[in-house]
Design goal:
three-stranded antiparallel sheet, 2 domains, single chain, 3 helices, alpha+beta
Length: 100
């Protein structure tokens, strides 16, 4: 599964909706911008638009930083223990974004 390449932006020029588009103005998603939830909808649109950048950053961190040690999931060292849960969350997020 491949997502639409970033960067994604929030297009506020359309009446009544926030459009999430790529640099070629292809629509990724849209969300209504009126009503009580308007500010929350805008915040959600900004988070959605940042998804490709966040995924790329997380993948790069995962590749270049790796693990504290080879057996970080079993290690009793404090650095391994504290990083293990973060790596689990990171791996799940990457898998979710990749549709795995």
């Amino acid at each position: 599964m491949t997502h639409t390449k970033g960067p994604w932006i929030v297009d506020e020029s359309t009446n009544g909706v926030y459009r999430i588009t790529n640099s070629d103005n292809e629509e990724i998603a849209r969300s209504p911008r009126s009503g009580i939830a308007g500010q929350r909808t805008y915040s959600n649109a900004k988070v959605l638009a940042s998804a490709p950048d966040l995924l790329e950053a997380l993948e790069q961190i995962r590749i270049h930083q790796g693990k504290v040690c080879e057996e970080y999931d079993l290690c009793s060292h404090i650095a391994c223990k504290s990083s293990y849960s973060a790596w689990v969350i990171a791996d799940k997020a990457i898998q979710k974004a990749r549709g795995q």
